[in-house]
Automatic annotation (TrEMBL):
Protein keywords: DNA-binding
Residue intervals of the HTH tetR-type domain: 6-66
One MF term in the entry's GO annotations: DNA binding
DNA-binding region: 29-48
Keyword Zinc tagged: no
Pfam families reported for this sequence: TetR_N
The protein's name in its UniProt record: TetR family transcriptional regulator
Matches recorded under InterPro entries: Homeodomain-like_sf, HTH_TetR
Amino acid sequence: MDPRQARTWSRLVEVVHEIAAERPIDEVSVAEVARRAAITRDTFYRHASGPSDLLSRVLRAELDELLADFSTEADARGGGFAVFDVAERALLAHMREHRAIYRGAMSPRLVPELRDMLVDTIERSLLDLLERHPEIAPAGPAGVDRARQLRVSAAYAASGTIGAIEVWLADDEPAASDDAARAILAASPAWWFSPVD
């Protein structure tokens, strides 16, 4: 990204955070984001297809950074529960920090772009962990392709996690991040508690 594009992206990040914290992202227009970012609509469309897509891209970048740290820590921790506990708490802390943004993106579930991004991000992280630590991977039924079984397990866990997080976000007086993490982990698949070598 050249310096001018980087400055534009930085401004878009700032503006979409501001606007999404003020009101629901599905009520925001491209024209408003472009005006507040002091760019043209054409420039906006070089970065995203709409405000929800922009918000999804911005939050994905933040989560990718968070999950890169988790990936490194997962190898050092040595226990399945510890690994997922740390990751779940970090994810919920991020969401609590941006609570107004995430709540503004719900009606009653998260807008599709944001929900899909979250499920995909968690799913990729889980698949990465399973590839690096096949010993914790859930056993599938006989005759089911191993790679397919891993994708099914990661998809199931990721979608369930986001569904639980939506319940937590929708609560007018949400539990603390740590309490929510414990509740989600209590409902998590058994393979999350397998020891990591």
